[in-house]
Fold this protein.
Amino acid sequence: MKLALCLLIALAPAAMNLCAEENKTMNSSNEVAVIKTSEGDMVVQFWTDAAPKTIENFKKLARQGFYNGTIFHRIVKGFMIQGGDPNSKDPAKENSYGAGGPGYKIKAEFNDHLHQRGVISMAREPDPDSAGSQFFICLGPVHRLDHQYTTFGKLIKGDDVLGKIGDTSVTKNSMGEMSKPTKRIVINKIDIVPGSSVK
């Protein structure tokens, strides 16, 4: 089953204090992730207090070079960009993009950090505990996903790169969704480095 973000039929209204969320301190370790793409670099600060196991898994995969050569295989305008599927390294496996992973699944760590522009979150199947390696970065507020997908950090640099990737032309994918990029947006590598080294 493809790791597509499940669209909710009914959205329950919830009162959200966005100002409070914006002022919330981003508790993170000293390490950040530098996502080096064919369109430029994006830097993620982790929320280690909110999703420690998710972050540990992401860092491990990054250090192993798991993400090297993968692409952002799914881009939904105004919603998010999705990547991290090892199948996407091979153009011949296009029909299986979205189905790949590291060979294991991790437990969800739903938390109070909201899905807003620049927030990175884990993609999954309908089972909450089915995330593996695939992640998405929000292009705008997507509050219907709050507390249902594991948010684990936010961009502190590279919003312009996020916007450029989000503006990539798309066509229909094998499922009929307008989300298939017309060019390959490659994740060359993801470096885990001390935050003090990023200027």
